Amino acid sequence: MIEVKMSPVSDGELRRGVFAKQDIPKGELIHEAPVIPYPNEEHHYIEKTFLADYVFEYGMNHTALLLGYGMLFNHSYTPNTIYDINFDNHTFDFYAYRDIKAGEELFINYNGEVDNDDPLWFNEKESDDEGTS
């Protein structure tokens, strides 16, 4: 149903994305990504690596690395995909937020909620970089 390919939203970087191989109806379960959780107090180790940009909040006391395609969904403030944390199965479950056509890239809102347009950490870094030039 989905595949990983190079994304055109890469801003000059080589970045992968998740794409629909077929039409996906609204509400369809697209992917169940298993998690590797770790306690928040250990996050300072991850902050020193590039993985810091790929982890997800996992409840109040944990952060998680997602397996499968979970860490490869790119961000949009107008996503076509949403996710729910399934604590019972220890997965992040990705669903079609609207009908998705074959070939479309699948996007989530990194803020966790579809309509949350708060600035993200990588936007803040760009603003900081622009302010110091």
TrEMBL record:
The keyword Cell cycle does not apply. InterPro entries: H3K4_H4K5_MeTrfase, SET7_MeTrfase, SET_dom, SET_dom_sf. SMART domains: SET (SM00317). Transmembrane segments: none annotated. SUPFAM superfamilies: SET domain. Keywords: Methyltransferase, Transferase. Pfam families: SET (PF00856). The keyword Translocase does not apply. GO terms for molecular function: histone H3K37 methyltransferase activity. It comes from the Bacteria. Residues 1-111 form the SET domain. One of its GO terms (biological process) is methylation. This is Lysine methyltransferase. The lineage of its organism: Bacteria, Bacillati, Bacillota, Bacilli, Bacillales.
